[in-house]
Specification:
By secondary structure, the chain is α/β, with parallel strands linked by helices. It has helices at 17-23, 29-62, 66-115, 118-123, 126-168, 170-176, 180-217, 219-224, 228-280, 286-327, 388-395, 418-423, 439-444, 452-461, 465-468, 488-501, 518-531, 567-573, 576-586, and strands spanning 349-357, 363-372, 377-382, 403-408, 411-412, 425-429, 437-438, 478-479, 506-510, 536-540, 552-557, 560-565. It has two domains: 17-327, ABC transporter transmembrane region fold (Up-down Bundle), CATH 1.20.1560; 349-586, 3-Layer(aba) Sandwich (Rossmann fold). Strand 1 and strand 2 form a beta hairpin. Helix 7 packs parallel to helix 10 (286-327) and helix 18 packs across helix 19.
Length: 587
């Protein structure tokens, strides 16, 4: 067996994964109950079939009546038909029930991922989350669709075989079970090593998916810098590690199967040797020996299946541990039990002595305080890393502050429901994400309350209609992943239309015009002037020309507000803002 001790792939989940997985069966217990009854009937039919054949052999030897032979054949046929019907029915029930459970688990994990904080996504690779929702959930499917019931079936079958064999001839039965302790030991070893192997394999698969997700997304950068060969080497290395882990996983199973098969052959040899002597001495009949021969082969088959099921179960448990690690990840932004309902937003924003750090130690905002009155246009300027974008993220409560308070209309944002808070804020960023679908679906963003007329109106306000109207299908034009067929400016215009269609009470512009050409920027500025009227607007921009019209400008340096005032007031102070302004215009 391979040594897995050097693989740091242990899950951080500390509970009982199997017990927790079983809790998902509660809504479907009646179906599992029916399936178990059918399995018991099916097991009974499988146990009876060798007996009927043994009876037929004895009738041939003893030259029994034809009617007796016919009756035995009819019984065998009835038992066979009942077994087939039960097998089909319980298989259908398990597949349907298993798929429903998997469907529910996949929804649960995706809903939970949506509830996690931005900090979680800052630290967690996308490929890892994709693996949890897809591969790891799929690994649970076989467990719910058959493994649990098959485990029960095989245990019942083994017990049934043992009881009948002991009843027919307990001495011969005891000789048949002589290798059973060895088989139990093998099964225990399989359980131990398979769990180790499956954990490593799942970790390697996650690593590979994470690599693919990141590098396929960044393929253009890889090609620009000519790093294809180097990235291929990395992929080859990760693929080989996954190959090795998968091989170890297979070898655990491949080693076990032949050993069980050899045990069954040895047991059959013992039965035929001892049973043959008893037939010759007429202690037992030929039919009884046949039944024993069939049962001894059947006895090791379910044991082998049990071991295989245990191996599959270990795979499911390894995946379950990783899924539950994500599900147990607490939302860093908790919801209040009885949140305040904010119906009519005025748009007042207040920061009161706010201290904030992404890692709870290195503060990026230090004792920041300011008040934005309803309808004001406010801008934040400063060097990269000064804390401007952090302020915007805190307003939408994508992170929580360590000290201080943030208020919207004099209500602490921690007392508001997150979805309600964010519904009032329209945030436009420099990096625009366009989803696969259509122009219309990207602007509406699955909000069915937004009509087609409102979509077109929003597009006209930001002048996005100029390029949309030229498309073959206009607002129903298909959009590829990430909007690859549109220019940067066009994607930014779509994001503006999306934001404005949702009628936010507060506008947040985070370098929103940085990637737009001068001509397009003029059109957007014209639309924004109309839209910012009577709306609280917060802007972050490096180009001072885009924020000169702001009612108030805050200059931030190293997490602190060092200057505030309007454009002309700040120029008259000849301070930090004046120096920034002079640098840009001298350039």
């Amino acid at each position: 067996m391979s040594n897995f001790n050097d693989d740091k792939t242990e899950s951080s989940f500390n509970g009982n994964a199997l017990f927790r997985l079983l809790t998902y069966t509660k809504p479907h217990l009646h179906w599992f109950g029916i399936s178990l009854v059918l399995v018991m009937i099916l097991t009974g039919t499988e146990l009876l079939r060798p007996i009927f054949i043994g009876d037929a052999i004895n009738l041939f030897k003893e030259k029994g009546q034809p009617s007796e032979l016919t009756a035995t054949v009819i019984k065998y046929g009835i038992v066979l038909v009942i077994g087939v019907i039960c097998d089909l029915w319980q298989g259908w029930i398990l597949q349907k029930t298993g798929q429903k459970i998997i469907f529910g688990i996949r929804k649960e994990i995706y809903l939970h991922i949506q509830s996690l904080s931005s900090r979680f996504f800052d630290l967690t690779p996308v490929g890892k989350l994709v693996t949890r929702v897809t591969n790891d959930v799929d690994a649970l499917e076989e467990m719910y669709s058959g493994i649990l019931v098959k485990l029960f079936r095989n245990i019942v079958y083994i017990i049934g075989l043992a009881v009948i064999m002991l009843t027919l001839d307990y001495k011969l039965a005891l000789f048949s079970f002589v290798l059973l302790p060895f088989v139990v030991l093998l099964t225990g070893l399989l359980r131990y090593f398979s769990r180790k192997a499956f954990r490593v394999s799942r970790a390697r698969l996650t690593d590979l998916n994470t690599f693919l997700s990141e590098n396929i997304t960044g393929m253009k950068i890889i090609q620009i810098f000519g790093r294809e060969e180097r990235k291929y080497e990395e992929f080859d290395d990760k693929s080989k590690r996954f190959l090795k882990a998968s091989f170890n996983e297979i070898m655990v199973y491949a080693t076990f199967r032949p050993l069980i098969y050899i045990s069954s052959i040895l047991s059959l040899m013992i039965v035929l040797s001892i049973g043959g002597r008893e037939v010759l001495s007429e202690t037992i009949s030929v039919g009884t020996l046949y039944i024993f021969a069939q049962y001894i082969q059947s006895f090791f088959d379910p044991i082998q299946e049990l071991a295989e099921h245990f191996a599959t179960l270990q795979s499911s448990l390894a995946s379950a541990e990783k899924i539950f690690t994500i599900l147990d990840e607490e939302a860093k932004i908790p919801e209040k039990e009885n949140p305040v309902e904010l119906k009519d937003l005025k748009g007042k924003i207040e920061f009161s002595h706010v201290w904030f750090a992404y890692d709870d130690e290195n503060y990026v905002l230090r004792d920041v305080s300011f008040i934005i009155e309803p309808g004001q246009k406010i801008a934040f300027v400063g060097a990269t890393g000064a804390g401007k974008t952090s302020i915007l993220n805190l307003i939408g409560r994508y992170y929580d502050v360590q000290k201080g308070n943030i208020y919207i209309d004099d209500v602490d944002i921690r007392d508001l429901k997150k979805s309600d808070l964010r519904r009032f804020i329209g945030q436009m960023q420099q990096d625009v994400l366009i989803f696969e679908g259509t122009i219309k679906s990207n602007i509406r963003l699955y909000d069915d309350y937004i009509t087609d007329e409102e979509i077109e109106t929003a597009a006209k306000h930001v002048n996005a209609s100029h390029f949309i109207e030229k498309l073959p299908r206009k607002y129903d034009e298909p959009v590829s992943e990430r909007g690859a067929t549109f220019s940067t400016g066009e994607k930014q215009l779509l994001s503006f239309a999306r934001t404005l269609a949702h009628k936010p009470g507060i506008l947040v512009l985070d370098e929103a015009t940085a990637n737009i050409d001068t001509e397009t920027e003029i059109l957007i500025q014209d639309a924004l002037e109309k839209l910012m009227k009577d709306r609280t607007t917060i802007m972050v921009a490096h180009r001072l020309s885009t924020i000169q019209h702001a009612d108030k400008i805050y200059v931030i340096s190293k997490g602190r507000i060092i200057e505030s005032g309007n454009h002309f007031e700040l120029l008259d102070k000849k301070g930090a803002y004046y120096e920034l302004y002079k640098l840009q215009y001298e350039a």
